[in-house]
Specification:
8 helices
């Protein structure tokens, strides 16, 4: 009976507090977009720097806390239920094909390799130095997309990297025996 109560609490339509909380959260999230407006104003440089810093770092966090307080526990449960339902629907599958896994590994390793080699190659290849921001954005996007291509099992492997007691279990391939048969042949 308690499971039904939790389910109905999560599926209950949000009220005005929920809508106000979402608006506060979105306004806070979008506040860094006002930095160019502040930079264009005729304020002293110290004021511009302080306000821009607050718009980038302080205000979004404060607005998020205020939004959480406004939506309350039931609104937070509703929002969490909706987000997890969306992730389950559009998230990566647990098991992927061998081809998809190999493509995902290439997508995963390519930005890491490029990020590691780019400082050394930038003097040899001027394109890297002149387009470093665009290449960085492309590499970051490729890295994030690769996590979805690799599937849920890879997320578990990645998560295991951060667990001290995790052990890797590598399956041994079945093949012809390589030990001697006792007939003197090696």
């Amino acid at each position: 009976m308690k499971d039904n109560e939790k389910t109905t609490a999560v599926k209950a339509p949000p009220g005005w507090r929920f809508r106000i909380g979402i608006i506060i959260f979105v306004v806070g999230f979008l506040s860094p977009l006002l930095i160019p407006v502040i930079a264009a104003m005729g304020l002293p440089t110290a004021w511009k720097a302080a306000i821009s810093g607050l718009l980038a770092v302080g205000i979004p966090e404060v607005f998020s806390l205020v939004a959480i307080a406004v939506v309350g526990k039931s609104g937070f449960k509703y929002l969490k239920g909706r987000i997890f339902a969306l992730l389950r629907k559009y998230g990566p599958p647990d098991v992927v094909s061998r081809t998809r896994y190999r493509i995902g590994l290439v997508m995963f390793l390519l930005p890491l390799l490029f990020g590691w080699l780019a400082p050394y190659l930038s003097s040899l290849i001027p394109f890297i130095k002149t387009h470093c921001i665009a290449l960085g954005i492309i590499g970051d996007a490729l890295f994030v997309v690769s996590l979805f291509v690799l599937g849920g099992d890879f997320w578990d492997k990645l998560r295991a990297l951060f667990i001290h007691g995790a052990k890797a279990k590598i399956p041994v391939a079945e093949g012809p025996s390589t030990h001697s048969t006792g007939s003197g042949q090696a």
